[in-house]
Amino acid sequence: MPVLPWLPSRCPLVPAFRSSDEGIIEAIHRIAQGLFASGSILWPTPSDDLLPHHLAALDPEQAAALRVLSTALSQFLTIKVVVGSDLSPRLTKRGFLMFRAEGKRKKDLAYAALYSLTALLSLLMDPDFHDDDPDPNLCMASG
Questions:
Q1: Which of 17, 34, 31 has the alpha carbon at shortest distance from 120?
Q2: What are 28-41's pLDDT values in tens digits?
Q3: Residue 101's closest CA among 77, 118, 121, 117?
Q4: Spatial distance between the Cα atoms of 65 and 14, rounded to a whole number of angstroms
Q5: What are the domain boundaries of the chain?
Q6: Contact 4, 125 (CB under 8 A)
């Protein structure tokens, strides 16, 4: 497996986490938390926190992307580990942590970002992945 220096040194994608979809969900929560905490993943300033002239400088695509990312960030901030009345974490039948959005909040965009991160890490951790594309324009829009 390639060395990914920006991943936590003890990546939780161990066999137990690969045993079910619940394991992947807990693992990506742990990985994402570590990447955010270390500054390896940066998130743009939410649109509500930007000055009006900064918002006005964005083109329509950037403004739309910022609105989606701002919503995803607000959803991330509401996701918590489910705990019981004794404040111990509640586990699934397979022994993994359970997560929920506080209150009646949604977490669909936050989970879309987590699933995208899962896909990216899966690609980068693939031993057959090579970042030596012979045609650098292959993924560029033609024009």
A1: 31
A2: 888 888 888 888 88
A3: 77
A4: 34
A5: 44-125
A6: yes
Task: State the Cα–Cα distance between residues 21 and 131, nearest whole angstrom.
Answer: 28
The radius of gyration computed from the CA coordinates of the chain, to the nearest angstrom, equals: 18
- Note the pTM of the prediction, 2 decimals: 0.71
User: What is the C-alpha to C-alpha distance for residues 18 and 15, in angstroms, rounded to an integer?
Assistant: 5
∠62-66-70 over CA atoms, to 5°? 180
List, in order, residues 6 or more apart from 134 with CB less than 8 Å away: none
**Tell me: the pLDDT tens digits for 3-50?**
444 444 445 456 667 777 888 888 888 888 888 888 888 899 999 999
- Rounded distance between C-alpha atoms, residue 117 and residue 93, angstroms: 25
Backbone φ, ψ for residue 89 (5° rounding): -60, 135
d(CA 135, CA 16) in angstroms, rounded, equals 39
Chain CA centroid to CA 87, Å: 26
